[in-house]
Please model this.
Amino acid sequence: MPHAIVIGGGIGGLTAAAALHGRGWDVDLHERAPSLEPTGSGLAIGPNALRALDTIGAGDAVRDLAAMQGDGGVRRADGTWLSRTSAEAAAARYGDPTVVLLRSALVDVLAARLPGGALHLGSAVTSVSPAGTVTAGGAEHHADLVVAADGVRSGVRDTLFPGHRPVRHTGLTAWRGITGAPVPGVTPAETWGRGRVFGTMPLAGGRTYFYATARAAQGARAADERTELRRLFTGWHDPIPALLDAVSPGALLRNDIYDLPAPLTAFHRGGVALLGDAAHPMTPNLGQGACQAIEDAVVLAHEVTGGGGLPAYSAARLPRTTAVMRRSHRIARLTALSGAAPVAARDGLMRLAGRLGPTAILRQADMLYRWHPPAA
Model:
């Protein structure tokens, strides 16, 4: 039985371990943290990622958590709609909904698909060689395949591609929060202001996942992040003030946003494969970070099990993730506009596109959501 070592217990690493196990691999997953996903946030799983999860038997468990219904779209800070569509129209076009759920819920679904003894918590990986030798937990291990899902600041990426440009700070920071109780008037929407964004996503059980982005210096932090958000989004439309009132200050997460200035030349070297943020860190503007990691994982498992191996994995994933990464960065630049004239021009174009109807808006997502995993 071939043996794989997976580095990193995030969404991509867990999916890769489950997918490889399902195809007959002996798997060990090493995660440096003492537990999986100790902090809570939400994430969106689009139709493309749901199809990928179907290949490991996890798609329906995620679909059962779908909560988004009704109209949504993009708004101005005063609440005026720039473009609108509906969750039902999107599901009809792509054959599946977009499911917004707690990250911890997805982690539980994926971890349940790992074999006993595969997960090694508190096991930091200190070195990796392209030949498949890994030092983890103070011991040396050998594998037929090493999967590096070690995040935006991937040490394995730096080892495999030492001359590549490192990740860069985009000039933006992001906040994420989850309300503890229902807040009236929440729709699946994103509001664009002058250099600021506020997004709202209903969760199962009546709670709301929200996120916000704004320009900020790298590493900047506020003494009270909820007070900072209230300052940044003063005067914005309902239910944004109520959402900020409904979240505990200690429950807010804040992280600077990074991406990769240029794509890698490959996602593998020797017997080591990069996956997810380790391979293609991107801004969160398309909500595709976790989705692309899930796609990576199932394509990798397919290619290394009777497919074309790691070169075929790179060939399959590099063009697609590069296109997604670049589109996400372009949207980040649009949302970061702060001058009156550029913002007015941007909003005018958005309003014009919205007048073409919901189908025109949805077509922009075709390249994301029409993707299908390789046939078994």
